[in-house]
Amino acid sequence: MPVTSSPQGTPIWRLRTTRTQWLGYLAWLAGACLFLLCWKVISDNTMWVFVEDAGRQGSDLISRMLPPQWTYAHRLWKPMWDTMNIATLGTALGIAMAFPVAFLAARNTTPHPLVRSAALLIIVSSRSINSLIWAMLLVTILGPGVLAGIIAIALRSIGFVGKLLYEAIEEIHPTPVEAISATGAGRLQVMSYGVLPQVLPAFAGISVYRWDINIRESTVLGLVGAGGIGLQLNAAINSLAWNQVSVIFLMIFVTVLASEWISARVRHAIT
Amino acid sequence: MLTLTQVTKRYPTGDRALTDIDLTLPAGQVMALIGPSGAGKSTLIRCVNRLVEPTSGSIRLGDTELTRLSGRELRRARRAMGMIFQEYALVDRLTVMENVLSGRLGQVGFWRSFLRRYPADAVIEAFRLLERVGLPQAIDKRADALSGGQRQRVGIARALLQDPQLLLVDEPTASLDPKTSRQIMRLIRELCAERELGAIINIHDVALAQQFADRIVGLRAGEIVFDGSPEALDAETLTTIYGEEEWDTQGQPADDETSSVPAPPQHLSLATGGTS
After folding, report:
1. Is there a domain that residue B216 lies in?
2. B49 contacts on A by Cβ (under 8 Å)
3. Kind of pairing, strands B30-34 and B215-220?
4. Which DSSP helix (H) or strand (E) runs through B169?
5. pLDDT-derived band at B249, boundaries 50, 70, 90
6. Which residue ranges make up each domain of chain A?
7. Does A184 lie at the interface with B, CB-CB under 8 angstroms?
8. Can you tell me the ipTM of this complex?
């Protein structure tokens, strides 16, 4: 924030010094060069012969998808129901596990810094592994089916719900907690009166939001054998039945739309 | 009843909040603690109920040495000390009744409190207190639906439901308008008299302190620099407590109710106001 004065003595203010201004330009130049370099690397690694007829391939695919084979839909109700069950039960299970973990992970409610580290480790490891990978591991352990899907969704949800919830806990007003402690309340009572009412809206919002994400994620779990509509999708793609694939796409689209609508309504109602 | 001996608080940052505080509060006395922001008023009352741990010294309530208690014993000792806060410190999303009943948490088990099944005598007392503080109609309202003065009344009812021997009051009027401030101070004063409660009241408003307290203690930079009756507080002692200022513009301190209701403007200059 350099301030100089003109020969007439009036002060001149500029946000940056000349030096930092030029450093800024240089950084933009370096960024642009990096972008062009990456462009070239990608371009060299692309087989352009395939890309050249992408339009034809795409329209060919769409023509094979249309018209959708509507009669196929009646075989999809059961897998779709499975998918929603995987998402809902998985979310419920995940929330049940994430709830205590969040309280152990929040700086202001954790009983001990070591416990906090352990809780954060659980959250990070749950978050760092995609639910599809969890599902692959669990199908190997538990065998294919809905159960593997439910647990995969639950394990992935712990990290998401746990992280957002512990952040909400750390942002509560400390004075009601102080006031409840001052009445001589026990540790759990302070949590249930001082902390819980303050994080309840955030908790409900996070849970519904995660449920809505899980509906989307559970549609692909079948690709690795963890039950749900993904199994049908996989089978349809493998047998090149594109007019069935389009039915599945539509069905997933409508379900996700509905779940997002519900989630948005619930979150709107809480806040 | 409450005795502080050589109480010192040093924060981990190295700031000395309190230095060798010696203070005795007889039973039933209402003491106002005045001093500039950062003088250690809040720290002092928080040391008493151990929301802040004193670094050294002894604090005795009756026969109990408060500084050595831990766990269950500390919680039992805290029941005997009701606390009232500047920003009311109510739990916004709970109802007025739940907030008041939370004053009994120290005497009720976790599941009973979680399921809101309080003993009948606690509920009766809560109704009685809400009546006493003037909020019988607000029982089912959520705490965040009330005005500042009403919220502070709920805070007072919560503190009294503990059936305490001592009230610790932290800036009860700092967020309130002048009229409500007086009403709240008068209510606290009356309740202390009814129940023969001792009280330490942190307060910025010197005029209110003079009007409603039996005794005034002035704190400056963590040390007691004045301890005496409200009448003994003059411009010179105010300078000792707060530093140099034109205190003489204050006019007469309001002794009688009638003259103080439309507070004269020069009178207000004495109220330093603001939050700590």
Report:
1. yes
2. 182
3. parallel
4. strand B166-170
5. low
6. 3-46, 75-270
7. yes
8. 0.82
